[in-house]
Every structure is written in C-alpha cells, then in structure tokens.
Design brief:
By secondary structure, the chain is an alpha/beta fold. It has 11 helices and 8 strands. The chain is globular. It starts with a strand and ends in a 5-residue tail after the last helix. This is Pimeloyl-ACP methyl ester carboxylesterase.
C-alpha cells in the first residue's frame, strides 16, 4: 500500500493506493468510499485482495473528519451525501489523473458513490454499491439506535478512537444524529439514480442490520443504466463477512463492463 496526503480547501485528505501483482494498464482504477464509521484502515486487507483479483489499481480515502484526514470543518450538513461528490471526492479524482474510474461504495459510501456516478457521468465506467442505503426505512433507524446504545460502553468508543483519534465522538454523532433528524426522514436517492447511466451492481446482505435487501433492488430498479441486484448470505459488512463471495460478484461485474 502507498499513501499520500492531498491538500484540499477544506483540509488534508488521506489517500491510499494498492497495486495488483499483475496489472492491466488499460483497466481503470476502482475507488472505494467508506461507511459512516469507517476509514481506510477499516477496509483491512480487502483493497489488496480486490486489486489482485481484478487486476486493477484500487484507491481509498478517508473523508474529512475520519481516519487520518483532517477534522470536518463544523457540523455535518444534511446535504453531506450529495456534497461528497463535489468536495473530497472531486479532489481525489483530480489526484488520480485517470480519465475513467469504477466506483465502489459501502453503506453511506454507496450513496456517495451513486451521487458521484451521477455527477461525473463522463468518467464513471461502473458503479458498485454494497450495503448501501438509498431511501429511509425503519430497519435503518432501528439499527442506528441499537448501535448508539452500544456506544454508551466506553470500550466501544475507545475502539472507534483507535481509527479516528480525537475525532471519534464527532464521527459517532455525525452518524447517529444526522440520520435520526426529522429533516432527514424523507431522504431518498431516486432522483439521483435516474441520472446514473453507467452499469450498476447493487449488493446487499440478507441479514443486513442497517437496511433490508430491498435497498439493493431499489437501486437496481431506479438506475437509468444497465443494472442488477445481488443478495449475499451475510450482514452489513460483506467485505469482512464473506469477502470471497463479494469479490467473485465484483469480478463478474467488472468482466462484463464495456471495453474502452
């Protein structure tokens, strides 16, 4: 793994890069977008495995406020999913110096990947969402409330601080407070999905505690381009719970992308 720090108007962004053992220079890279409590380190060995399996470079970055990136400048706005495609992601895209890319987003990172695919249609070659939320449903809020309760245990917050340092409390509140606000109750990505024209694969775990498998079907049905849904026998984190199945599904999707 190689790591760099990007200077953006809002703060420094930590970016990591994995190169496959055998690379195909003609293949566009995969860009990973992490979940609500995630960061580069929490992808663990998945990016390296994905790079080797796909023959593509893989990039991941810590959003502002997370991991090794600078703190977020203020309170997270309700527009944070839409904003990401124009903010830190745009800076990372410029850093890649690649004409095209494939987007891979986990959980809220999946929603951000959808936004980025819609906002950068000339560059997004394919979109993969994993355990993504595309509309509000009771299971999302129930999962968040249960997780919030678990963080009353100081050990839980200490574990989060291993990855986010003194930003850990902000990371937690940015997740549980934003999603539970009344103003977020009618949020959905249907209008954005109508602007996604690249091939799309929506993956979801059948036991996902933060959203039903209907989320994946919603994404596939409303995406304007060729799309499909895949349900895996796991929970919310397929890249840890069933990585082999996840990588196999991604490999099949990538193999079917139009050649450029």
């Amino acid at each position: 793994m190689e790591a760099v720090t990007l200077d953006s108007p809002a703060g420094d962004i930590h970016v990591a890069r994995w190169r496959p053992d055998t690379a195909d220079a003609g293949r566009s890279p995969i860009v990973l977008l992490h979940d609500s409590l995630g960061c580069v380190a929490l992808w663990r060995d998945f990016p390296a495995r994905l790079a080797d399996a796909s023959g593509r470079e893989v990039f991941a970055y810590d959003r502002l406020g997370f991991g090794r990136s600078d703190p977020y400048p203020g309170r997270l706005p309700l527009s944070f999913i839409d904003d990401e495609a124009r903010g830190a992601f745009a800076a990372v895209r410029d850093h890649l110096k690649r004409e095209r890319f494939v987007l891979f987003g986990h959980s809220v990172g999946g929603g951000m990947a959808i936004e980025a695919a819609a906002q950068h249609p000339e560059s997004c070659e394919g979109l993969i969402t994993v355990a993504a939320q595309a509309y509000m449903e009771p299971r999302i809020l129930a999962g968040i409330r249960e997780a919030e309760q678990s963080f009353t245990d100081p050990d839980q917050l200490a574990r989060l601080a291993r990855y986010h340092g003194d930003k850990a409390e902000w990371v937690l509140r940015a997740w549980v407070d934003t999603w539970q606000t009344e103003a977020f109750a009618n949020w959905n990505l249907a209008p954005t999905l109508a602007r996604v024209h690249c091939p799309t694969l929506a993956i979801h775990g059948e036991q996902d505690e933060f959203g039903s498998p209907d989320q994946a079907r919603y994404i596939a049905e409303r995406s304007a381009g060729p799309s499909g849904a895949r349900i895996l026998p796991c929970g919310h984190v397929p890249h840890r719970e069933c990585p082999e199945r996840l990588i196999a599904a991604v490999e099949g999707f990538l193999a079917d992308l139009p050649k450029r």
